[in-house]
Amino acid sequence: MKCPFCGFADTRVIDSRLGKEGNNIRRRRECSQCERRFTTFERVEDMLPLIIKKDARRQPFDRKKVIGGIQRACEKRPVSIATIEKIVDTLERQLQESGEREIESKIIGQAVMDALHDLDQVAYVRFASVYRQFKDINEFMAELKDILAEGGNVRDN
Question: Are 38 and 80 spatial neighbours (Cβ–Cβ below 8 Å)?
Answer without folding.
Answer: no
